[in-house]
From TrEMBL:
CDD domains: ABC_6TM_MRP1_2_3_6_D2_like. The lineage of its organism: Eukaryota, Metazoa, Spiralia, Lophotrochozoa, Mollusca. Pfam families: ABC_membrane (PF00664). This is ABC-type glutathione-S-conjugate transporter. Its main location: membrane.
């Protein structure tokens, strides 16, 4: 290479040999500095020896080899003198693998979906109560509590009716006093039944309407926020995660959660009324309530966190199934063309198997709970029967034992419904997460008399 001609804006700006142009520090030298240092960042980790690079180009003649060595030397000079911070930064990354991993995580476009840990936050329950309505939520508990109180009092009234000494004397059966008192007991018992029917009907109607309204409110907040999300949200969020929330989680909030709430309210008031009746009938039963309550609390402490976290992981591992299925349907023609159908089938089976592992673990934990609750319920029946023997009143004994037989199922269902409620409320937690993601400015539709024929983009962000 004898001489180099440098053109700038259609005119010759420099003319000379390679060494002369570099020594002048003109346009040619500046061009080399800019070009060579741009490649420095990508070559710092695997910088080769200039001699080996020359040997890798057998077609170069001796003059080209000499010029190539000069370029490599200048590249090293420029990279050290003009970009010392790049070398230092990369050296720091090599010494600190955490910094390198953090950089890799920041460069990821789609992050792995993470599930919450620990107890469900109180804000999730408050949010669901607000979706139901603060006043209707309070009325639901008050009305059902009133119904349960009437139910308990009707049992006590029936016990007093059977133990009445006047009615036990059959010789007075034809007297007016006997008939009036019998009608009085019957009338009060019938009135209690009518009041119970009105209370439970009011509760059922109010709960059904408000639970449906709550599901609609939660769904509306989520879909409104999703539709107003920026483009970066859809670039970084797989479609399977969105479909999972709008399918399985919405189904849980629509169908499962209202039924679980009604069952939980029923079992809580049933257990409370049962313990009150047994304690009223046999006061000695209060002695065993404290240790049995501690055992029930211990069982709940082990079961509920395990079941809740299994539900979270099961929901999280379901999203990749939807994503993979959607991607497979979209690229079905390409998959068949390249003959990789078997690989996609196996990958889908692996994702389903991973999800079923946690689903099966949840079923196994339910069986673990059922065995222990049945055992504790049998202890309650035994204690109630033993203490009832000490009572001389036959009606009180029958009332205590009958409620003790009910408490086994009630306690079992209360623990199970409490755990199922906390497990399924995770769906509200997941929908609440997508209801609070960053969104664009709210869109308000207004009437305009004139429309401008232009489109204006303000603060538009997108990811690649």
């Amino acid at each position: 290479m004898d001489s180099i001609v440098v053109m700038t804006n259609g005119e010759i700006s420099e003319l000379g040999s390679y060494d002369e142009l570099l020594s002048h520090n003109g346009s040619f030298a500046q061009f080399l500095k800019t070009y060579l240092t741009e490649e420095t960042g990508s070559n710092l980790h695997n910088e080769d020896d200039p001699e080996s690079n020359v040997r890798n180009h057998p077609r170069m003649n001796p003059i080209e080899n000499q010029n190539y060595r000069k370029i490599q030397n200048y590249r090293k000079i420029f990279s050290i003198s003009y970009y010392p911070c790049s070398r230092k930064r990369i050296h720091d990354e090599d010494k600190n693998p955490e910094m390198k991993n953090l950089k890799k995580d920041e460069e990821k476009l789609i992050e792995e979906e993470k599930s919450e840990t620990g107890k469900v936050k109180l804000s999730v329950y408050i949010g669901y109560a607000k979706a139901i309505g603060s006043l209707p939520a309070v009325l639901i508990f008050v009305i059902y509590g009133f119904y349960q109180a009437l139910n308990v009092y009707s049992s006590v009234w029936l016990e007093q009716w059977t133990d009445d000494q006047l009615l036990a004397n059959r010789s007075l059966a034809n007297t007016s006093i006997y008939q009036d008192k019998n009608e009085m007991y019957l009338g009060v018992y019938g009135a209690l039944g009518v009041c119970q029917a009105i209370a439970v009907l009011t509760y059922a109607l109010l709960a059904s309407v408000r639970f449906v309204k709550a599901a609609g409110n939660i769904h509306y907040k989520m879909i409104t926020n999703i539709l107003r999300s920026p483009m970066s949200f859809f670039d970084t969020t797989p479609v399977g995660r969105i479909v999972n929330r709008f399918s399985r989680d919405v189904e849980t909030v629509d169908n499962n959660l209202p039924q679980l709430f009604r069952s939980w309210i029923n079992t809580v008031f049933n257990v409370a009324s049962t313990l009150i009746v047994i304690s009223y009938s046999t006061p000695y039963f209060l002695i065993v309530i404290i240790p049995l309550a501690f055992l029930y609390w211990l069982v709940q402490r082990f079961y509920i966190p395990t079941s809740r976290q299994l539900k979270r992981i099961e929901s999280t591992t379901r999203s990749p199934i939807y994503s993979h299925f959607s991607e497979t349907i979209t690229g079905a023609s390409s998959i068949r063309a390249y003959g990789v159908s078997r690989r996609f089938i196996e990958e889908s089976q692996l994702k389903v198997d991973k999800n079923l592992v946690f689903y099966f673990a949840g079923i196994a934990s339910n069986r673990w709970l059922g065995f222990r609750l049945e055992f504790l319920g049998s202890l309650i029946v035994l204690a109630a029967a033993l203490f009832a023997v000490l009572s001389a009143d036959d009606g009180i004994v029958g009332l205590s034992v009958s409620y003790a037989l009910q408490v086994t199922g009630s306690l079992n269902w209360m623990v199970r419904m409490t755990s199922d409620l906390e497990t399924n409320i995770v769906s509200v937690e997941r929908m609440k997460e997508y209801s609070e993601t960053a969104s664009e400015v709210s869109i308000f539709f207004k009437r305009f008399t004139k429309f401008k024929k232009e489109i204006e983009h303000t603060n538009l962000f997108t990811g690649f």
